[in-house]
Here is the input.
Amino acid sequence: MRDSLLIRAAFSEKTERPPVWMMRQAGRFMKEYWEIKNKYSFLEMCKTPELAADVTMLPVDLLGIDGAILFSDILVTPEAMGGDLSFGANVGPKFSNPVRTMADIDALEIDVTHKLQYVADAIKVIQQRLNGKIPLIGFAGAPFTVMSYLVEGGSSKDFKLTKLMLHNHPEMAHRLLSKIAKVTVDYLNMQIAAGVNAVQLFDSWATALAWDDYKEFSHNYNVDIISKLNRKDIPVISFCKGSSVFAPLMAEAKPDVISIDWNADLLNIKQSLPKGIAVQGNLDPHILYADKAVIKDRIYKLFDRMKDEPGFIFNLGHGIMPDIPFDNVKYAVEIIKEFRY
Ligand code: 1CP
Here is the structure.
């Protein structure tokens, strides 16, 4: 896998075209996903290795992307720590026992990889199915983003309770973040041992934080996690919403790749980073709703801008929305695979 397009680009080597994968590529915009989802709950899908493999393979088989991403969720780690997690129809994730006090934090377990063995099992099944064709990306949520779900008890628009904990009770926040960081290191190293070829750390909601708070409550934990991963030949991709602003700090954590949201000019960001850090991104996912001529124009403009910069992986600035037409996503992958620098 070291010679695959994706891993070479992740290690900042020259490639004949940009490799392509897309966040949330294995999901709700595909009717084949719903055929499985209508029979099983989301957590059953995550916890049954054969089903997780079936879903992981959908975009591999139907879109022909250059990297598969493990079908799972960032919330399986807080669940293993003791969070009572459920996913109701159209209400998103819920934790019925939100973490609000020091006693709640103390009750969370940190030696939990045995409870996540189903993920290692899924990785083995997926690698058998991929059969060396393309790399498999593992992932975990970054501590701040995972913390937000535990504290809020689910998704949030404003992260009010989470930010209140950072501001009024920083000692509690740090205790909670340290516990999540420990679990995240063990979990990602377990995925690497089970056979993933790259890992991505998702800090989706870092964009809610001011610079100093990002540094203290998110970045410092990501630095610690990245420094403890068994990285030989395994590129580490660091993603956050807000990366157009936080990229200089993210680079200090020394990931191999930084995944950039769609606000920034990708070339400017790339040129501002230390040599040897690749970028991933950064098409506005809404472009995939537009006419095919627009999709082609925007993607090729991005490629033209990045043409002299080895170390570029095509992705979206964030995930594919569930109602983006499948045909448009397929078209985008096709024109990317036709492209040559
Ligand atoms: O209802 C359904 O069918 C479940 C929808 C779904 C799916 C397909 C959820 C629930 N998670 C997933 C899969 C998933 N989640 C993947 C699989 C691989 C792929 O990308 O194709 C990955 C990498 C994630 C990671 C994840 N889960 C993130 C970080 C990435 C991102 O998009 O920012 C986050 C924030 C979550 C939480 C989550 N999981 C699911 C929901 C509805 C949510 C809440 C999102 C929110 O708070 O807005």
